[in-house]
C-alpha cells in the first residue's frame, strides 16, 4: 500500500558556522496537501525548502521521499520542482520556450511537448500567450508562466518560495486563490513558504509555524489561529491580548482577580498560565455591565472595523469592533467562555 506521506524530514539539523538554522526538525507532508511554512525572516523556512529541493545538504538527519532516502540525490534527479520569488524566467525566450525548457532537456518528441504546453497554459489561463515575450507580461502573468514551467514536468512535489512577494496587494490576493485552485485541480503536493500570516491562513490545508529553526506548532489554519500552542504563535498569527492568569480548575481561570469560565481543561489546579483573547472576540458594553472596565486611549478605522485600544489594569488591550468608540470614555468589556484560550507557560 502506498504511504500517505510523500516526504518525511527526520531529525534535520543545519548549521552555518555557529548559527543553527534548523534544530532537529521533524516534518511529515501528506500527498495532495497544501502545506505552508510560516515564520519570521531567519526562522529556517527557505533552508527547509532548499534541503527538500536538494540545493542544500543537511548536517544531520534524513530526507525520505516516497519512502526512499534522497540525501545524496542531486536536485535534477528529484521529482521536485521549485518556483522562486523572482520567477527566474528566461528573458530571451518567449512564453512557449520558457515552458518547454524542461521538456526539451528530457528530449521529449516535439508533438508531445506541444500538447503538454497547450494543456498547461490552459490550466494557468495563458492560452494565446505562447509567442509573447516574458518582459511584456504583468507580474501575475510571469508568475503563472513560472508555475506552468514547473508543473509541465509533472513533479510529485512543488516548492514555492515566497512566489507572491513581488506582487502588489490586489494581485497578490487574486493569485492566492488562483494558486490554491491550481493545486486542487492537479492534486499535486505544494509546500509554500511565506512570512505573511494572512496568506498562510487563506491558502493552506496545514500550517507549520517555525521560529529559530524549531517547529512551534503544526495544524490547520483554524487550529493555529484559535488554539495557539504558545506565546510566539499567538503573537505571530494575527493580533492577541495575552495576560497572566491562574487555572483554578478545569473550565475556570482567574485573571485580574476575577474568575472567568472557559472551555479548557487538563491543567493542574492553580497552575500559572497565559490567557489569550483575540481582539474580535471582545464585546464592548456599558462600564456598569462589563466584567472588566477600561479607558479608551485610541481609535483607528481599519476599513472593516475600528481598532480600539483600551487601558485595563495598566495594560493596553486591542479590541476590533464595527462600532466607533470615543477616546477618553470609560467602557466595560465582556468575554464569553469560548473566546478565552489557555496556554501553558513556556518552559525556561
Give an overview of the whole structure.
With 348 residues, the protein is an alpha+beta fold. It has two domains: 227 residues, 3-Layer(aba) Sandwich (Rossmann fold), CATH 3.40.50.300; 106 residues, OB fold (Dihydrolipoamide Acetyltransferase, E2P) (Beta Barrel), CATH 2.40.50.140. Helix content is 24%, strand content 36%. The chain has eight helices and 20 strands. The strands form four sheets. It has a six-stranded mixed β-sheet, sandwiched between helices. α2 crosses α3, α2 packs parallel to α4 and α3 crosses α4. The longest helix is centred in the middle third of the chain and has 18 residues. The two termini are 44 Å apart.
Give me the number of helical elements: 8
Q: Give the termini distance in whole angstroms.
A: 44 Å
Number of strands: 20
Query: What is the CATH class designation of the largest domain?
Result: Alpha Beta
Share of helical residues: 10-25%
SSE-based structural type: alpha+beta
Q: How many distinct folded domains? A: 2
Indicate the proportion of strand residues.
35-45%
Order of helices and strands: EEEHEEEHHHEHEHEEHHEEEEEEEEEE
Largest sheet: 6 strands, mixed
Strand order of the largest sheet: 6-7-8-3-9-10
Radius of gyration, CA atoms, in whole angstroms? 24 Å
- Principal-axis shape equals elongated
Mean pLDDT: 91
**Low-confidence parts:** none
